[in-house]
Specification:
single chain; 5 helices; elongated; 111 residues; mainly alpha
């Protein structure tokens, strides 16, 4: 009682815990899914790579393709390496896979 009187004088608010919050349940139950959905623009490409590599297509895989092989597996209108840059970055970020595509016109630099 004395503490209530002091709190009123000092202007402190009385804090009470509602029983309603202790028994509250979320209105939406979300499951944590370890696999994120694949963006629509990469679904066909990833499915084509899965068919080619089968069980080996998993996290940590390193895929080295020529541009001709990549075009036969995953066709593009723009027949250049940079047409696959989005897929390469997506696989690296989300799947921890390295996709390297080399062109016959690309010269390797060796010292």
């Amino acid at each position: 009682m004395f503490t209530d009187f002091i709190n009123r004088i000092l202007g402190a608010e009385k804090v009470s815990v509602s029983n309603r919050l202790e028994n509250a349940e979320p209105s939406v139950i979300m499951k944590k899914d370890s696999t994120k959905p694949i963006p629509e623009k990469y679904q066909r490409d990833i499915e084509a790579l899965r068919q080619k590599y089968g069980d080996a297509f998993k996290t940590g895989l390193c895929i080295n393709l020529t541009l001709q092989e990549a075009l036969s597996i995953m066709p593009r209108e723009r027949r250049r390496i940079d047409a696959y840059s989005g897929l390469v970055s997506y696989l690296k970020k989300e799947w921890d896979m390295t996709l390297s595509i080399k062109s016959q016109k690309t010269k390797s630099k060796t010292l």
